Amino acid sequence: MTKIERLRLPEDDATFGSNRIFDLFQYSPAVTANGLVFIAGQIGMRPDGSIPEDPKEQIDLAFRRVEAVLKHLDLDFTDVVELVSYHVDVGSNLAAFREVKEKYVRSDFPAWTILGIAALARPELIIEIKVVAATRK
User: The domain that contains 87 carries what CATH number?
Assistant: First the structure.
């Protein structure tokens, strides 16, 4: 029998602010099943819901959100086995993405897929990051 665990963040989480967005759209920030953690796509949004105009700041916030979810599960970026990045304008933000990514993913490189897309959930968003990690248990 598969054991499935859904992550529920503390309501005062410093990175996310609350679970409001997860409750509103009815999804979990992460689900663990069969030794893998599936982290929902993370965007460059501040805890107050605002989105910076600066592409690097957006990218950094998205990585910080992934990092926060990993930490809640006692994991880090060395546990990531797959990273998928969705770029609204892959040509103009890939260099910035790679630069920020190097701050977070320094070794034990995951598989990485880069996808150019037409749009994300809000028009000011330029990036979304989806991650699969392996548990340490």
Answer: 3.30.1330.40
- Give the length of the chain: 137
Q: Which value, in Å, is the radius of gyration of the alpha carbons in the chain?
A: 14
**Which domain does 26 fall in, by range?**
4-134
* CA 38 – CA 119 distance, rounded (Å): 22
Q: How many domains does the chain have?
A: 1
3-state secondary structure of 48: coil
In the predicted structure, residue 137 carries a pLDDT above the cut 90: no
CB atoms within 10 A of CB 65: 24
Residues 6+ apart with CB under 8 A from 101: 59, 63
The answer to whether residues 128 and 62 touch, using CB atoms and an 8 Å cutoff, is yes
The predicted model scores a pTM of 0.94
